[in-house]
Amino acid sequence: MVATRENGLFLYDDLSIERFATGADELLINSQVSCALALANGQFAFGTMQAGVVVIDETGKLRDRLHKPTGLQDDAVLSLYEDRQRALWTGLQVGIARAETGSPFRYFGEREGIKGSVWEIVRHQGRLYFATVMGVFYLDESSGRFKPVAGVSPQCWALLPFGKTLLASAFDGVYEINGNQGRRISDGFVFSLHRSRQDPMRVFAGMRDGLKSLYFDGGTWREEGRIEGMNQEVRHFYETPKGQLWLTDYFSGLLLVDLSKGYTPRPPIMRFDTLHGLPPADRVVAFPTDKGLRFATLQGIFLFDEARQRFYRDTTLVEGLSNPKIGLFSASWDGQGNLWLLADDNAQSGVARRSSEGVYSWDQSPFLRIAELPVFTAYPDPALEQTTWIGGTDQVVRYDGALPQHQKLTFPTLIRQVIANADSILYGGAGMAPPGMLELPFSQNSLRFGYSAPSFDDESKNEYQYLLEGYDEDWSNWTVEIYKDYTGLPPGSYRFLVRARNIYGQLGETAACDFQILPPIYRTWGAYLLYALLLAGGVYQLWRLGLRNIQKKHRQEMEQLEFEKLKELDQMKSRFFADISHEFRTPLTLILGPVDNLLSTQPEAEQAKQFNLIKRNAQRLLRLINQLLDLSKLEAGKMKLDLRFENMIPLLRGITFSFESLVEGKNIGLRFESELEIAFLYFDRDKMEQVLTNLLSNAVKFTPEGGEVSVEVKTAEEGEWLQIEVADTGPGIPARQLPHVFDRFYQGDEALRIEEAGSGIGLALTKELVELHQGRVSASSVEGHGARFRILLPYGKGQPLIPATVDDELALENTLLLVEDNPDMRAFIRDAFASSFRVLEAADGQEGVDMALEHIPDIIISDVMMPRKDGMELCEILKNDERSSHIPIILLTAKAGVESRLAGLSRGADDYLSKPFNREELLIRSRNVLEWRQRLRDRYASLQPPAPVEDRSIQVEDAFLQKIRGIVDQHLSDSDFEIEQLARVVGMSRSQMFRKIKALTGQSPSLFIRAIRLHRGKELLETTQMNVSEVAYEVGFTTPAYFSDAFTEAFGIRPSQLRK
User: Fold this and answer.
1) Would you tell me which of 310, 373, 812, 987 could form a disulfide with 277, CB atoms 3.0–4.6 Å apart?
2) Residues 1022, 1034: contact at Cβ < 8 Å?
């Protein structure tokens, strides 16, 4: 085919040439043909200088024209090109344009004559009609333009074919349309129309305030009147084969009008709403399927159970539906058995395509290109196979499913430019990537990469993902940004990768750009040589300085060696004293026992004097021995735990990754995995850090290059233990050595072969620290495949609610303070209580007051007559001090008169015993006082309101505990409010507060605070509508799960069961 500028087209077959007449000759002859192109679909495109682009088929028929009225920027076309997506590119005098000549989508708008939002589309008598808010339009397919139907008011909502005429509903009535002319046949605001199945001459009109019937009789229309008993706004109809009408009421739900027995103005009417299982939506549309009647709602697809008269969500109709609760408002079937579903959010609209097996799959491709267009109707055209008309705001879209679908075409990703430091263009060409390796100086280590993808279906929504090898750990998230900046890249070799994804989810080919950032001058080989020379000179000077100090250092070493030997000798002496002291205790016991027996026989005065001398000196020797033992314990470093209730996971993760630099140097992998993000338990942070550091150090030490060290955290034994495992891929531990790995100073064969062999103390210390936390540690190994160390710590229900004691002040045994100025009497009483109490001693009343306030004992036995302060003053001071008012006091005196006894009791003494006294009587009275205190403790622990009592001491303690409860109530929601904060508010030390509350309630302060929180939580659950989680946080628990477990332990019932 030959195109000429002024004479049209000719056909040439190597032998002859003849003119080819076409339907576009007038355009081609008068507009100067400038270029031509054979299209992939067999048609031909011709560019002209005055008429734009003309497209004809092989017979010469005019098929399409692209010029200014159709959106082309200019009618002067200089060149043509067709891409892989069959889009036609035009080179114009004023720019470049791309036209989708082979696209399945064609758009019609105001330029083609359509106006207003399109609510319904119908083909009638071979012509397409469109109901819009601006009236009714029809498509003149010969001209491709939309023309209005005369005689019809604006704001039309629905269309209904009726014989040779077409009915339209409008805001002022129902219109009958014949061809291009309409006339009104009924009044009223009518939304929807439906032709009766039972009587085809009857048409129901859904109105704004009810339903009426129109009847076609003898060529004329007459109104049969309204259906009584309803005034709802009817927007949609569906009639069952039985003659039942399902009506959509936009505000009240769904109506079922039963006309199965024939038409009547007063039929049975049923109303369905949320009480019948429908979602609280403002519209419901009924539509038939091969699986029965279904209902499209704003919360997905529902089905109706006629037997139960209820609606249920149907998630089985369409497989792969992206959102089962998708908001639907329209459903239409096409000629291929596919269901077109329109969603409230058009981005979720799609087609349920039916397979040959009758299974529906979800396809959103017809709506991806028009996702931002508000859509109101979809009409599968029965006259055009696979063609669907979609009506929206001021626009109509024709979708032709028979045309090629672009989402299956492959496309490349292109790197468009590389810019350094925001101003230097390193690469700005076309193609897949810059050629070769870019070498960049260190001063150009801030780069911007620009990229794009030639996938032009809504190209603004193409997404990109990038990765800089050697810098980024993984691909980035998808983004619509078309550039990526990297700043301050360190020297090294890199590869920038980028890939694209179009609106169909199709991935483009990956583009790559290789480049290298050269090191700065101070990091070149010449610079390193200079550094080496300077270092060598410095080493030489240091060597000379060291040589001069050798003799001095040697003398210091000798002195140090002598010091170490003396120190070792001293330690041996201490151990000797400690060992022999233990041996002295048995004979001393055998001395003191018989002496006590001899004294109990009431010997003569001279004999008693000798016996007492023996006893006094034996006790003195015992005290000296105890002091030696205390010194030995101090030298041994008796360890105490500083326990805190904390989340252990961050500590474990932090310690693990603190070894990153070490393992990177050895090319060893380091991995940390935890099933838990939060694991609160009692532990000493420093000690557990020491434990994990020991294990990780050993693991890294024994793991060869290329191996891996891992730390794994999870729960064990039904959640009662927190399990921490440290594993390596080293040589492992022989089976014969496994039982000894935790022994002190033990070294395995493998440890002796490495350079940094340990002393054999680390694992022994690890074991002692873990056991100090009431935990367990074990080791397992398969020789040649690494070793695994497992730590189990009490956790959840398995851990103590209150941590193990960590200092002497918080000891669980009863403490007795003995205040007596006579040392022999103190020794006599101490021996009586030594087996049941921890005995503290004071030599006078002032010292007794100081020790009582410092240690808060469980009971005080005091003499009355003493220096500095007597027993009466001691009693009065302690009973009037809030820190010590609860401590029971027994007074001992030589005064046996009633006045003296009353004076002591009036000062607050709990009991009074006259000298001489029987030791057994003193023991019994002490137990009675403590048992009475235990009964009082049980009352306080129950957290019941205090009962009226006359005992002033009980009133004081009641007031104190009420004060404590008030303070806790003020800080109830503060989960961090514990004993330290409580002691600070009350004005006591931590140990004083602990001993005070422990003595009054039998509980530690932490348990007592927790009990207050639990009782308050129980009250809230019983008296409010708060849920369990809200109550848990309201009363200061860190997690609802912890609250639930503690609540169940306290009350024997779970909080959720209490609410029921």
Assistant:
1) 310
2) no
- For 981, the token pair is 């904060």
- Write down the residue that tokens 């290789």 correspond to: 514
pLDDT digits (tens, 9 = 90+) for 767-792: 878 887 889 999 999 888 899 999 99
Q: Up-side HSE of residue 908: CA atoms within 13 Å toward CB?
A: 24
**Segments in 549-668 forming alpha helices (H):** 550-599, 605-636, 649-657, 660-665
- Please give the Cα distance from 252 to 255 (Å, whole number): 9
**pLDDT value, residue 389:** 95
The letter for the amino acid at 735 is: A
At 900, is the pLDDT very low, low, confident or very high (cuts 50, 70, 90)? low
**CA dihedral sign of residues 945, 948, 951, 953:** positive
**Taking all residues of the chain, what is their mean pLDDT, rounded to a whole number?**
82
Checking if the pLDDT of 812 tops 50, the result is no
Please, which contacts does 969-972 make with residues 24 or more away whose CB atoms are closer than 8 Å? 969/1012, 969/1016, 971/1036, 972/1012, 972/1013, 972/1016, 972/1034, 972/1035, 972/1036
Amino acid at 653: R
Q: Which residue has the higher pLDDT, 758 or 289?
A: 289
H or E stretch at 850:
helix 845-855
> Which ranges of 223-351 does DSSP label H, i.e. alpha helix?
none
Question: CA nearest 227: which of 250, 260, 193, 204?
Answer: 204
Distance CA 894, CA 967 (A): 45
- Partnered with residue 304 across adjacent β-strands are 311
Residue 882 pLDDT greater than 80, yes or no: no
pLDDT at 415 over 70: yes
- All residues at 6 or more sequence positions from 420 whose CB lies less than 8 Å from its CB, including other chains: 426, 440, 444, 446, 447, 448
Strand partners, 255: 247, 271
Q: What number is the average pLDDT over the span 937-943?
A: 58
Three-class DSSP category at 282 = coil
pLDDT tens sequence across 396-411: 999 988 776 665 678 8
Q: What percent of the chain has pLDDT over 90?
A: 29
H or E element that contains 212: strand 210-217
User: What's the pLDDT at 397?
Assistant: 93
| Token pair for 207 | 């109105």
Gap between the Cα atoms of 871 and 695, Å rounded = 57
d(CA 818, CA 626): 19
């088929």: which residue's tokens? 57
Q: Dihedral, CA atoms, 527, 531, 534, 538, nearest 10 degrees?
A: 170
Planar angle of CA 463, 465, 466, nearest 5 degrees: 145
CA distance 682 to 800: 8
- DSSP structure string for 571-591: HHHHHHHHHHHHHHHHHHHHH
pLDDT at 857: 87
How far is the C-alpha of 75 from the C-alpha of 56, rounded, in Å?
Answer: 17
Distance of alpha carbon 120 from alpha carbon 111, whole angstroms: 20
Least confident residue range of 173-177, 321-325, 455-459, 974-978 = 321-325
* DSSP string across 325-393: T--EEEEEE-TTS-EEEEESSGGG-EEEEE-TTS-EEEE-HHHHTTTTS-EEEEEE-TTSTTEEEEEET
Residues 291-330 have pLDDT tens digits of 888 898 888 889 999 999 999 988 777 765 656 667 788 8
Q: Tell me if residue 1045 falls in helix, strand or coil.
A: helix
Residue 1041: CA count within 13 A, CB half-sphere: 6
Residue 178 CA neighbour count, 13 Å, CB half: 4
Q: Are 768 and 775 in contact (CB under 8 A)?
A: no
